[in-house]
Amino acid sequence: MATIEECRSALDQLSENLAKSEGDVRSAAAMDRSLSCHITDLDITFVGRLTDGHIRDVTTVHGPPPTRAEIRLTMAGDDLVSLVNGELHFARAWGSGRVKLEAGLRDLLRLRKLL
């Protein structure tokens, strides 16, 4: 089971990856939306903001998200680490229910370019 520190490091790496991206991926990540990532096995939530291709102002809260973010992810800590390391394909994980992504329709259409 991934630790809180490993999950936070994975989010930091994801932010770096998004910031370095180009083309369609860069434009998809260049939105300004609140973001939450609930780690089910640790029962913690990382709350922050996706802004200009970076995940910023990340804080950790115990339990489920305290407020409804515009983009919401739910998964186990090991799945977050595996996704960021490229060991787990997002579409397969989402299709099998290992990862949940909730957002408005317009945001989902933009985010699909990241998949």
Distance between the termini: 24 Å
Strand arrangement, largest sheet?
A: 3-2-1-4-5
Q: What is the approximate shape?
A: globular
Q: Helicity, in percent?
A: 25-40%
Oligomer: single chain
- Total of DSSP H or I helical runs spanning 4+ residues: 5
The value of Rg in angstroms is 13 Å
The overall pLDDT, averaged over residues, is: 90
List how many beta strands DSSP finds: 5
Q: Strand-residue fraction? A: 25-35%
* Sheet having the most strands: 5 strands, mixed
Helix/sheet category: alpha+beta
Low-confidence stretches: none
Order of helices and strands: HHEEEEHHEH
Secondary-structure blueprint:
Elements: H1 4-20, H2 23-29, E1 32-39, E2 44-51, E3 54-62, E4 71-75, H3 77-84, H4 90-95, E5 100-103, H5 105-111
Parallel strand pairs: 1-4
Antiparallel strand pairs: 1-2, 2-3, 4-5
Description of the molecule:
- The protein is α+β, with helices and mostly antiparallel strands and 115 residues long.
- Helices cover 39% and strands 30% of the residues.
- It has five helices and five strands, in the order H-H-E-E-E-E-H-H-E-H.
- The chain has helices at 4-20, 23-29, 77-84, 90-95, 105-111; strands at residues 32-39, 44-51, 54-62, 71-75, 100-103.
- A five-stranded mixed β-sheet has the order 3-2-1-4-5.
- Helix 1 runs parallel beside helix 3 (77-84).
- The longest helix is centred in the N-terminal third of the chain and has 17 residues, at 4-20.
- The two termini are 24 Å apart.
